[in-house]
Amino acid sequence: MAKEIKLPKLSEDADEGTVAEVMIQEGDTIEEDESVIAVESDKATVEVPSEAAGTVGEVKVSEGDTIKTGDVIAVLEEEGQSGNGEDNEEKEEKAGQDEESEEEQEEEKDQQGEQEDEEQESEKSDEDLGEENSDEEEEKSGDEEAAKEKNEKQEEDKSGEKEKQDEKSKEVEEEAEETEEETESSGSEGVHAAPGAKRLARESGLNLEDIAGTGPDGLVTGDDVKEAAGKAVGKKAAAPSLELPDFSQWGSVERQSLSEIRKVTARQTQGSWQTVPHVTQFDEADVSGIEEYIGQHQGEVEEQGGKLTITAVLTKVIANALHRFPKFNASIDMEAEEVILKKYVHIGIAVNTDEGLLVPIVRDVDQKSIIELATEITGLAEKARNKDLSGEDMEGGNFIISNLGGIGGTQFTPVIFYPQVAILGASEMTTRPVYQKETESFQPVVTLPLSLSYDHRLIDGAEGVRFLRYVRNALEDPYKALLGA
């Protein structure tokens, strides 16, 4: 019996992806658990194994296709079938030839019948020539032929209409089955929702069960989700649709498809920027002492497989700051008019990869030492660059640190990752002369530029300044920075 290889669920919140590579072709003999395709989702690229062993009869996907959970990737042939499908092709070709032969024979019979009818009518016409009713008989014969042709044409029309109706009914059934499968995989049992609506609800942190559908049979549409998200912030979250000009009128252009990671990043940053009123606070910290600490303990961390960086130190400092300023470790529910204060400390570390920005989460930062954090951050960054992150690795963060110091720059305004309420950016460290009151002279100091963006609906400017000043003071005093390590 033929066996279908279907796409399994890629991760907890990933129901679809793009085919990055097809590893099999028709006629191949494969083993169970052998990889058949590579799929790129918004999290990473994963290889999909075969559910059974056998000979590949048909490959249903190509590179670049977007496929969903449950879609058929390939079909393994029944036992006794040819691996390359030649037997089926020969049978189909032979059947086609038999049909053509039968059609030709039918046409020949029809032509012979028409000729015989014409000869008989000619003979009859000659015999009855001169008789009074000859004209009437010829007219009657003509009427019968016309009626016969009309009936045949009506039968053909009916047959054509029936075929069209059957095709249309089949398409409707397929669409209904596809919608049903997609609805079942949405994660909300009993909710009838379009695929786009599921994606928007997931990205906006909304529950589909709380959204009233306005589509056919109560279907929750993308507009319904946008409407619900808009109510949560006091306005519609949908962006205005701006039409692009035809750039080719000014010169040569090239279009390239966005990667899955870039698509998700674009949607997330646009939604956050539209939803959250951003305020960004800037400051600089003297990290000369931290730099000395890093140099002294780098070897110890490397022995455990990690790398001690300013990011690891910042992670620990931010964990302490979140305990001291709980509003920064919260989310705001505008519909319920409530603040959700989180008692756990999970911090995301922005990682630049070839495919785009990924943010793995370091959990329970407040319960780990600097060395543990440095080792874990190194491992997560490596997984991100190798596309080995799972969905769980990127979920549940409260706050994000984005360090661009390794690339350069002086200051920037990081975008908050909704539904979080704050994010810290760090730029390139520089050494410059700073006037010291104690010695009444200029001394070389290593400074770290800091940029704190926060949600002005929940956090006022004075609180933003206090939070960032706490981070600065902790970095300038190594003992405070390492508190709890």
What order do the helices and strands follow?
A: EEEEEEEEHHHHHEHHEEEEEEHEEEEHH
Mean pLDDT: 79
| Rg of Cα set | 36 Å
Shape summary: elongated
Q: Any idea what the CATH superfamily of the domain at 278-481 is called?
A: Chloramphenicol acetyltransferase-like domain
CATH architecture of the domain at 278-481: 2-Layer Sandwich
Which structural class do the helices and strands define?
alpha+beta
Beta content comes to 15-25%
Q: What is the percent of helical residues?
A: 40-55%
Distance between the termini: 61 Å
CATH topology tier name of the domain at 278-481: Chloramphenicol Acetyltransferase
Number of helices: 10
* Unreliable stretches covering 5 or more consecutive residues: 80-92, 124-134, 179-187, 233-239
Q: Which CATH top level class of the domain at 278-481 fits?
A: Alpha Beta
Give a quick account of the main beta sheet: strands, pairing sense, barrel closure.
Answer: 7 strands, mixed
Give the tally of β-strands: 19
